[in-house]
Design goal:
The protein is mainly alpha-helical. It is built from 4 helices and 2 strands. Helices cover 81% and strands 3% of the residues.
């Protein structure tokens, strides 16, 4: 048998074997006919992914809770300013400490994104005469 024919047979056989092996790996990846043993690194990475998913879930929950608390704080500050506005407008004056407290609360209100008629109420309160 000439060497060219022998080379052709060997190359053809190796190519067919290579194609069969790749076909088997592809089929196994789709149908999971045979399980392959995971390396310790792969197992650690899988555990890490699970932990990371748990952390992400908790972080999303914390962000939702923080937003709810922010909305509640904005509402509480707005209510406090409305109540104090009624009280001190009826009196016709405001004391310095109360005005300072309301201004601090109003600043926090604005910093958290509060934006409504409370600005007008604060202007009214700041325009009242100060008494000790």
């Amino acid at each position: 048998m000439p060497i060219a024919d022998l080379t052709y047979i060997i190359v053809t056989f190796c190519t067919a074997l290579y194609a069969a092996w790749n076909g088997f790996e592809w089929l196994n990846s789709k149908l999971h006919l045979f399980s392959t043993k995971k390396s310790k690194l792969d197992e650690r990475l899988d555990k890490f992914d699970e932990k990371l998913d748990g952390i992400t879930t908790r972080l999303d929950k914390n962000e939702d809770d923080t937003e709810a608390l922010k909305i509640a704080s904005i509402s509480r500050i707005k209510g406090k300013i409305v109540d104090r506005h009624k009280e001190y407008m009826a009196l016709g004056y405001i004391d310095y400490r109360t005005l300072d407290y309301l201004q601090q609360q109003f600043k926090a209100y604005e910093d958290m994104g509060g934006n409504s008629y409370v600005h007008e109420l604060m202007r009214d309160l700041e325009g009242l005469p100060l008494k000790d």
